[in-house]
Each structure stands twice: as structure tokens, then as C-alpha cells.
């Protein structure tokens, strides 16, 4: 137990001594003062718990002393007990309390009472002090805890912010992909419908040109119409390439040979003010990609360079082999051939570089750019398993890198998958033509008849199946792919169950849908010309001729 200080104030030493004797047993610190000034001096020196004051003193009366002590903030709560032999009326007591006393003890003092009263206030002081200490410690702990919490909170906020940023970036990427995806769907849809129309237009024009007696202008007019329709076809091809619905025809391509083969075309497209230089690392290996799409991509890059150099300049095309050790967001680890197209043109600022591959983003005037060029190049790179990288600065030229994966050895062996079909003898065949679009159907029917075949037409898969079941003279089925109810691939499945040997040719504008359920189908892309149709049928029918030849040979022997 910590001792507290008790200050005894009386001008008579005998009385001080008697208080001291009475209070000694409390075990507290007793301090004595025989005048008001001495009392003040002691108060300033010690923390005093209880003050025992004689009311009547010669120098200053106890009430005045108490008042002065109370007015000091440090002693606001010090317990003051008056002791008095005189001034014992109720009025005096009241005055004492008004001056801040907590008790008023008459003389002669009953020792036990004095001791008990002082003990109560000493104890109260000690308890209050303990409480205050406890409170201070608590406050300190609360403060420490609060700052810990504030730190944890700040950390949490930082992490939430980080996550939010990550999420936002991811969301933005998803949005971008969705945007491109829906643009692709839209473009693909439009291109598909156009392909159907162009199939009918080109087909009918071709038939017309062989039938109309040639007048002075007829040939020229028909030719013009066919050429315009073919330009339309190449536009839809571009749109489909963008929409990534154009099935790539991956093959092993020797990039150097391809670029050398394009030299004249590139020269012509770049014009006389632009020089072109090529540089190939020796012993390059081939890549695996679509040959004609790659040509188109390089042409796109060259045309961009031309547009960036209206006053002329230089284009450099270099090809090197690169190894990527670690996968990144843009490129997986592996072996690549990197085609760099560099120009000395106006370059791009950072924002343009960032948006350059966005579909339909162009800085060229109306009618001068569609903004599809780079997005097609990027589509080709990504579909081939590679990537596209653009580095450019304003007025410091541009370098576009097209990364394509090296063809693996197994694939490299089977190059030239596109061997032209051998010419063959025309043979009159029974063809079942399936198409839900009357316009396209009529034009293909006319083409087939023009080729000398007999044609049965069905406008749906179900009707076609009825024909297949009822007839056994059919030589081949030519069917559209995208039809309501049953698509071309499903129809082919059903037909195979009934007539496994009957050849089936699928014509389609959407080859992407096909690649998922190709089931070894032969496909002809729309729009096609008479000759394309003839050779596609020819590729399928040799099996049929062979089937016919065998029994013939057996017949001869028997
Ligand atoms: N070599 C280059 N130098 C400077 N800017 C370029 C270069 N290549 C592309 N760009 C910028 O990127 C934009 C997009 O190019 P992209 O090839 O996709 O479309 P485009 O050339 O405008 O139109 P399109 O190729 O369809 O005719 C261009 O409009 C141009 O601002
Ligand atoms: Mg372009």
C-alpha cells in the first residue's frame, strides 16, 4: 500500500502533537505546519491527500486558508477537515462547508472518530489515485491499439485499392474482348449474308455471259459486273478475316520465299518515292500459318508504311529467328520467326500505338482507311499462335513485328497441302442440291446444270434426307451449311448412316462454325465460281469412279 500525505495545520504545537499521536496508527505520512504560510509551503512540496486545519489561527483564519487553497486548481479535490473548539454553531459549520470542507470536527476531539474520518478520506484519495493511474494506462493502451488499427486499416485500404485496380484492368480487358467479339459477330453476320448474295450474283452473271449473244457492249458490261462482284467478295473475305470466321488454312510457309515472291507487288504498292530493303537471317526455318493471309498481312503493313511516308522514305523488312524462354501475356514460350517491317514515316504517339490494332480505329480520312488492317494482322498472328508488337514514336518511324511460331518438323514434312486438283473428265452426275436460300439455290442449280449435271433440289435437311432414302441413283450431295432445323454437318451425319459411300460437299460462308464439328467434311467457301464448284465436285467423285471401275473390271474377267 502506498502511503499518502496528511497535512496538519495548527498554531499550537501541543495540538499538533496530539493529532499526530491520534493519527500515527494510520501508517500514513504526517506533515505538520504551524501557520498558513508554512502550510502553503508544504502543499507545494507534497501531494497532500487530507488537510486538517484549525479554524481559529492568529495569522489567518482557517476558513480563509481553505478558500485560498481551494482556488488553486491543483488542490481542487484535496479533502479539507476543519477542527475547532470555538465557532461550533450550525452557521459556522455551513460556512466551513462553503469554503470547501468535507468535514467539521469539534474539539475536544474523540480520537477514534478523528482517525476514522481521516482514514476514509486518505483511502478515498488513494483509490482515486489508483483509478486515475489505471485510466491513464488504459488510455495509453487504447491509443496504442488505435494506432495499430489505423495502420491495419490503411494497409487494408491499400490492398483493397490494389485489388480494385487489378479488377478494373481485368474488366477493361474483358470488355475490350467482348467488344471485339460482338463486332466480330456483327461483321461476320453481315459478311455471311453478303457471301450468299454474291454467290447468286457471280453465278448468274457467269451463266449469263455464256448464254447472251455477244453484242458490242455486252461482254464489257458483264465483265465489269463480275469484276465488281469479285471485289465485293474480296471485301467480305477481309471482313470475315477480321471476324475470325475465315478458317485459316495453316500450312508450312517459307517466309523468305513468300516475301521474295511479293517483291514486285510490294514495289508497285509502295510507289517510286519509297525504297524497300530486305534482310534475312541465313538458314531460316518455315512457319506454320495461312499463306494468303500472311501475304495480305504483309501487304497491309507495307500500305500502312506507305501512308505514313507521303514524302517518300524507306521500308525495311527483316526476318530473324527468335526463342522466347518465358511466356508473357502476349507470347507463349517457344520458337518463333519474327518478321519486322520498319519505316521512316511520321510514326505514332503513345495513344495511337495503344489503339492501332483496335478494329475500325483509323486516323486516315473518310474513305481512306477502314481501320481493319492491323486488327486483321493481329488476328492472323494470334490465330497462328504468335503475336504482334508495335513500337513507334512521333516523327521517328514505326516498327511492326509479326511473330509466328516455327513449324514443327512433322508438319514441315507435309508442306504443300494445297496441291491443285488434277484436271478430270467431266461426267454427267445426279446431284442433290440442298439450300434454304432460294436465290442461292437457283444460281447453284443453274451452274450445276451448266456443268452438265442433273439436279434435284431440296430446301431443307429433312427434305434432303427423304430424297436420299428414296433414290439410289445419286452421285453426290451439295449442301449449304447454315440452315434452320438441321445444318449441313448434321445432314451429312444422317446421310452417312443411310448411304455411307455417298460423297457430300458442304458450301458455306462461315467456316469457323465448321471447324468445331468438321467431321471430315469437304468444304467449299462461298462465293464460288463455276470452276471452283466443278473442281470441288471432281475432288470428291474419283472415289465414285473407282467404285464404278472395279465391278467393270470384274465384269470383263468373267
Ligand atoms: N506504319 C505506320 N506509321 C504510322 N502510323 C501507323 C502505321 N501503321 C498504322 N498506323 C496507325 O494505325 C492506324 C490503324 O491502322 P490500320 O492498318 O489498322 O488501319 P488503317 O490503315 O487506318 O485502315 P486500313 O488498313 O483498314 O485501310 C492508322 O490509321 C494509323 O494511324
Ligand atoms: Mg492499314
Quick recap of the structure?
It contains 17 helices and 17 strands. It has helices at 13-23, 36-45, 62-71, 90-98, 111-211, 218-243, 255-270, 291-308, 350-355, 373-383, 409-413, 438-450, 461-470, 488-498, 511-516, 530-540, 542-557, and strands spanning 5-9, 29-33, 48-54, 79-84, 101-106, 250-253, 274-280, 287-290, 313-324, 334-343, 387-392, 398-405, 430-434, 454-458, 476-480, 504-508, 522-525.
SSE inventory with pairings:
Blueprint: E1 5-9, H1 13-23, E2 29-33, H2 36-45, E3 48-54, H3 62-71, E4 79-84, H4 90-98, E5 101-106, H5 111-211, H6 218-243, E6 250-253, H7 255-270, E7 274-280, E8 287-290, H8 291-308, E9 313-324, E10 334-343, H9 350-355, H10 373-383, E11 387-392, E12 398-405, H11 409-413, E13 430-434, H12 438-450, E14 454-458, H13 461-470, E15 476-480, H14 488-498, E16 504-508, H15 511-516, E17 522-525, H16 530-540, H17 542-557
Parallel strand pairs: 1-2, 1-3, 3-4, 4-5, 7-9, 13-14, 13-15, 15-16, 16-17
Antiparallel strand pairs: 6-8, 9-10, 10-12, 11-12
The chain binds adenosine-5'-triphosphate and magnesium ion.
Magnesium ion (MG) is lined by residues 300, 303-304, 369, 373.
Q: How would you explain this protein's 3D organization?
A:
- The structure is a single chain.
- By secondary structure, this protein is an alpha/beta fold.
- It has three domains: 5-109, Response regulator (Rossmann fold); 252-413, Heat Shock Protein 90 (2-Layer Sandwich); 430-557, Response regulator (Rossmann fold, 3-Layer(aba) Sandwich).
- 52% of the residues lie in helices and 19% in strands.
- The chain is built from 17 helices and 17 strands.
- The protein has helices spanning 13-23, 36-45, 62-71, 90-98, 111-211, 218-243, 255-270, 291-308, 350-355, 373-383, 409-413, 438-450, 461-470, 488-498, 511-516, 530-540, 542-557, and strands at residues 5-9, 29-33, 48-54, 79-84, 101-106, 250-253, 274-280, 287-290, 313-324, 334-343, 387-392, 398-405, 430-434, 454-458, 476-480, 504-508, 522-525.
- The strands form four sheets. A five-stranded parallel β-sheet has the order 2-1-3-4-5, sandwiched between helices. It has a five-stranded mixed β-sheet with strand order 7-9-10-12-11, with helices on one face.
- Helix 1 links the parallel strand 1 and strand 2 (29-33).
- Helix 5 runs parallel beside helix 12 (438-450), helix 8 packs antiparallel against helix 10 (373-383) and helix 13 (461-470) packs parallel to helix 14.
- The longest helix has 101 residues, at 111-211.
- The protein is rod-shaped and about 155 Å long.
- 32% of the residues are buried.
- Bound molecules: adenosine-5'-triphosphate and magnesium ion.
- Magnesium ion is lined by residues 300, 303-304, 369, 373.
Amino acid at each position: 500500500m502506498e502511503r499518502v500525505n496528511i497535512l496538519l495545520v495548527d498554531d499550537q504545537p501541543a495540538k499538533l502533537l496530539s493529532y499526530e499521536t491520534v493519527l500515527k496508527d494510520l501508517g500514513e505520512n504526517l506533515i505538520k505546519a504551524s501557520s498558513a504560510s508554512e502550510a502553503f509551503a508544504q502543499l507545494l512540496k507534497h501531494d497532500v491527500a487530507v488537510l486538517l486545519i484549525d479554524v481559529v489561527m492568529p495569522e489567518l483564519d482557517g476558513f480563509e486558508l481553505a478558500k485560498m487553497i481551494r482556488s488553486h486548481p491543483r488542490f481542487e479535490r484535496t479533502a479539507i477537515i476543519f477542527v475547532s473548539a470555538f465557532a461550533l454553531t450550525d452557521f459556522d459549520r455551513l460556512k466551513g462547508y462553503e469554503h470547501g470542507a468535507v468535514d467539521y470536527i469539534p474539539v475536544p476531539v474523540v480520537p477514534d472518530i478523528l482517525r476514522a474520518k481521516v482514514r476514509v478520506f486518505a483511502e478515498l484519495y488513494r483509490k482515486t489515485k489508483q483509478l486515475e493511474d489505471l485510466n491513464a494506462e488504459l488510455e495509453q493502451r487504447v491509443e496504442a491499439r488505435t494506432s495499430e488499427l489505423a495502420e491495419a486499416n490503411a494497409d487494408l485500404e491499400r490492398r483493397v485499392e490494389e485489388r480494385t485496380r487489378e479488377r478494373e484492368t481485368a474488366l477493361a480487358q474483358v470488355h475490350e474482348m467482348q467488344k471485339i467479339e460482338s463486332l466480330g459477330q456483327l461483321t461476320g453476320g453481315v459478311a455471311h449474308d453478303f457471301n450468299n448474295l454474291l454467290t447468286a450474283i457471280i453465278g448468274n452473271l457467269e451463266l449469263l455471259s455464256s448464254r447472251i449473244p455477244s453484242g458490242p457492249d455486252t461482254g464489257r458490261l458483264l465483265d465489269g459486273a463480275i469484276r465488281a462482284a469479285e471485289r465485293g467478295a474480296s471485301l467480305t473475305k477481309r471482313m470475315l478475316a477480321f471476324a475470325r470466321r475465315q478458317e485459316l488454312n495453316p500450312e508450312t510457309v517459307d517466309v523468305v520465299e513468300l516475301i521474295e515472291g511479293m517483291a514486285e507487288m510490294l514495289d508497285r504498292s509502295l510507289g517510286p518515292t519509297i525504297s524497300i530493303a530486305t534482310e534475312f537471317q541465313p538458314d531460316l526455318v518455315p512457319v506454320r500459318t495461312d499463306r494468303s493471309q500472311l501475304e495480305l498481312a504483309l501487304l497491309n503493313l507495307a500500305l500502312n508504311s506507305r501512308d505514313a511516308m507521303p514524302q517518300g522514305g524507306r521500308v525495311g523488312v527483316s526476318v530473324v529467328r527468335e526463342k522466347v524462354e518465358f511466356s508473357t501475356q502476349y507470347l507463349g514460350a517457344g520458337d518463333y520467326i519474327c518478321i519486322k517491317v520498319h519505316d521512316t514515316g511520321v510514326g505514332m504517339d503513345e495513344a495511337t500505338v495503344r489503339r492501332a490494332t483496335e478494329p475500325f480505329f483509323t486516323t486516315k480520312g473518310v474513305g481512306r482507311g477502314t481501320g481493319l488492317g492491323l486488327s486483321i494482322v493481329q488476328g492472323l498472328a494470334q490465330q497462328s499462335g504468335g503475336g504482334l508488337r508495335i513500337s513507334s514514336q512521333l516523327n521517328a518511324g514505326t516498327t511492326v513485328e509479326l511473330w509466328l511460331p516455327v513449324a514443327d518438323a512433322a508438319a514441315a514434312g507435309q508442306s504443300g497441302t494445297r496441291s491443285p486438283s488434277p484436271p478430270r473428265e467431266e461426267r454427267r452426275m445426279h446431284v442433290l442440291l440442298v439450300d434454304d436460300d432460294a436465290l442461292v439455290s437457283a444460281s447453284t442449280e443453274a451452274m450445276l446444270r451448266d456443268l452438265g449435271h442433273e439436279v434435284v433440289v431440296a430446301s431443307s435437311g429433312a427434305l434432303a434426307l427423304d430424297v436420299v432414302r428414296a433414290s439410289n441413283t445419286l452421285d453426290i450431295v451439295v449442301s449449304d451449311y447454315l440452315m434452320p432445323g438441321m445444318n449441313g454437318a448434321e445432314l451429312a451425319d444422317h446421310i452417312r448412316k443411310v448411304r455411307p459411300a455417298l460423297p457430300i460437299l458442304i458450301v458455306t460462308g462461315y467456316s469457323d462454325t465448321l471447324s468445331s464439328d468438321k467431321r471430315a467434311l469437304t468444304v467449299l467457301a462461298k462465293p464460288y465460281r463455276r470452276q471452283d464448284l466443278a473442281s470441288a465436285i471432281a475432288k470428291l467423285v474419283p472415289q465414285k469412279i473407282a467404285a464404278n471401275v472395279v465391278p467393270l473390271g470384274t465384269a470383263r474377267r468373267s
